[in-house]
Amino acid sequence: MQNIEYLKDQNAVLVPVEQWEKLQNELATLKKRVKKADVLIDFKSSLTNLKKDLQNENYDSQTEISADDFLAELKNAE
C-alpha cells in the first residue's frame, strides 16, 4: 500500500480506487465470516439448551405436541 496519502490538514486518507475496492471486498468477506460464526455460536447454544432440557427429570418423552402448539409455546417463551 505504497500509494496511500495521509492529509493531516484535512484529516483524510487518499487510497487508490483499486486498493479501496480490494479492502471493501475483504471487509465484506470478514463480515460474512463473523455473521456465520455468530449463527454457529447461537446454534451450539440452542443444542446445548436442548440437551439440558432432554436430560431434565421433568421431561416426559411420551408427551406428544403438534408443531403448531410447539411454535405457540416458543412465541410465549419470548
Give, in spatial order, the strands making up the sheet with the most strands: 1-2
The total count of strands amounts to 2
Large-scale geometry: rod-shaped
Report helical residue fraction. 55-70%
Q: What is the overall number of helices?
A: 2
- Structural class assignment: mainly alpha
Largest sheet: number of strands, sense, barrel closure = 2 strands, antiparallel
Please report which band the strand proportion falls in: under 5%, 5-15%, 15-25%, 25-35%, 35-45% or over 45%.
Answer: 5-15%
Helix-strand topology string: EEHH
Uncertain stretches of 5 or more adjacent residues: none
CA-based gyration radius? 25 Å
Task: Give a verbal description of the structure.
This protein has 78 residues and is mainly α. 64% of the residues lie in helices and 8% in strands. The chain is built from two helices and two strands. It has helices at residues 17-55, 67-77, and strands at 5-7, 12-14. The chain has a two-stranded antiparallel ribbon with strand order 1-2. A hairpin with a 4-residue loop joins strand 1 and strand 2 (12-14). The longest helix is centred in the middle third of the chain and has 39 residues, at 17-55. It is rod-shaped, with a radius of gyration of 25 Å.
What key attributes describe this structure?
8% strand; rod-shaped; 78 residues; two-stranded antiparallel ribbon; mainly alpha; single chain
Short description:
Helix content is 64%, strand content 8%. It is built from 2 helices and 2 strands.
How are the SSEs placed, and which strands pair?
Layout: E1 5-7, E2 12-14, H1 17-55, H2 67-77
Antiparallel strand pairs: 1-2
